[in-house]
DNA sequence: ACCTGAACACCGTTCAAGT
DNA sequence: ACCTGAACACCGTTCAAGT
């Protein structure tokens, strides 16, 4: 909920609260200093005391999201199982803010929970057999893939505007169903799955499985 | 290059040329109807004859990029080798416009070369053993991962502004080197690889390998 | 059909000034 | 230290009008 603040002093954490609410609802582009200022009964310029510029404000949103990351305790399970659990936890955090997952990428090696996640991922990857440098590159790309998974979640998008969502789905369906089944037999027969996966949990399970299986795969083929 | 147009009639294809040049140089956000209008000696509103709104203009950029996609002829090689080649071709096209790779996602099932690519990918995935629906979901996520690979290419970003790039790298390096090696031993020792991979070709080879290995992996574990 | 002109409702950000 | 006010240089888009 976006509620109007009426306290005397401007609290940057409360500004971030508002910004997060707006961004969740209408996307990061809808966040503006002017809107936030009005919400907090202050001049737009007052915000520049606490945020260097808009990029800095969005970075604060990324940090806020990453604050929810928890790193599971090491267990006796195989390294790849533990990595799977670690990445699943990361994705769960991102899923709370589908339109904002991107904001976390530039903050992962800055915000503390991002660092803890990264360090643990590198531990598990080296335990699996990667060199430190290879672990770094593989880990980096895995994080990017998982962020993309959430960002392009075809179900979550525009939850706040269900009619726009329905309209968008109908448009896509119409476009695909107008294709020639002779020329595109597989696309037309898989139209449903291409537009929108059957289950959201299945979508995420598959996405995470693909990432972890890819990691195991490149490890095997390098030996 | 962004050059000024002086023809009588407004040619939408030439507007797209300019828009692509601006977007490549300064990012999609820097593309504006007003700038394009000035470039073509026309009122901003004149562009609305040819583009419904800004989203429509960016969609045209996505289509323009996808126009370069070529689908390799079927060969006798294994399905996964052929898929690897198909996806490598796709990534090569995207790499020509690192900041714009995102624009292609909503156009893949609309623009003809995107459809041809998708149909061929589904053929190869079903040949590998996926059901049509699973092939659709796996293909979808692979495309998303590869787009993310290009979008987050740590080397390509801000090529137009090399000093900003250097400054950004220096800032990241400073941030990582200020971390405690006791608390983050792997991050600090892998700092170089985390900030910027050694080789660009290696970066892309690894990214594509991860995707294809992931596909093979989930296929095996489902049997 | 194709383009113009003026206007509306927004932006981020700088600068100088107030308390 | 913290906030204001006015201004600058932008945006996308609507509407009514011109040829």
Largest protein interface?
A-B, 56 and 56 residues
Compute the separation of the termini of chain A in Å.
53 Å
Low-pLDDT ranges of chain A = none
Please give the count of helices of chain A: 10
Task: Describe it.
Two copies of one chain form a homodimer. With 223 residues, the first copy, chain A, is mainly α. Chain A has ten helices and no strands. The first copy, chain A, has helices spanning 12-26, 33-39, 54-66, 79-95, 112-128, 132-151, 162-177, 185-189, 191-195, 200-221. The longest helix of chain A has 22 residues, at 200-221. The interface between A and B is large, with 56 and 56 residues. The structure holds a DNA duplex (19 and 19 nucleotides).
Break the fold down into its secondary structure elements and pairings:
2 copies of one chain form a homodimer.
Chain A (H helix, E strand, L loop, with lengths): L11 H15 L6 H7 L14 H13 L12 H17 L16 H17 L3 H20 L10 H16 L7 H5 L1 H5 L4 H22 L2
The structure holds a DNA duplex (19 and 19 nucleotides).
Question: Notable features of this structure?
Answer:
homodimer; 223 residues; 10 helices; DNA-binding
TL;DR of this structure?
The structure is a homodimer of 223-residue chains. Chain A contains ten helices and no strands. Chain A is mostly helical and 223 residues long.
């Amino acid at each position: 909920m976006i509620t109007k603040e009426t306290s005397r002093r401007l609290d940057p954490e409360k500004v971030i609260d508002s910004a997060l609410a707006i961004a969740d609802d209408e996307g990061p582009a809808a966040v503006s200093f002017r809107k936030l200022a009005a919400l907090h009964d202050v001049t737009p310029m007052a915000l520049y005391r606490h945020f260097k510029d808009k990029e800095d404000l969005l970075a604060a949103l990324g940090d806020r999201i990453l604050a929810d990351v928890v790193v599971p305790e090491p267990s006796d399970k195989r390294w790849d199982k533990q990595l799977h659990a670690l990445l699943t936890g990361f994705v769960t955090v991102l899923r709370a803010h589908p339109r904002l997952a991107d904001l976390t990428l530039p903050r992962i090696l800055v915000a503390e929970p991002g660092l803890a996640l990264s360090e643990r991922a590198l531990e598990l990857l080296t335990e699996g057999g990667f060199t430190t440098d290879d672990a770094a590159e593989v880990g980096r790309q895995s994080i990017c893939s998982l962020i993309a998974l959430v960002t392009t979640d075809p179900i979550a998008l525009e939850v706040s505007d269900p009619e726009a969502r329905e309209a968008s789905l109908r448009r896509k369906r119409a476009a695909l169903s107008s294709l020639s089944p002779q020329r595109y037999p597989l696309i037309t027969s898989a139209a449903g799955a291409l537009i929108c996966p059957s289950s959201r949990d299945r979508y995420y399970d598959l996405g995470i499985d693909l990432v972890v299986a890819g990691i195991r795969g490149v490890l095997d083929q390098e030996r």
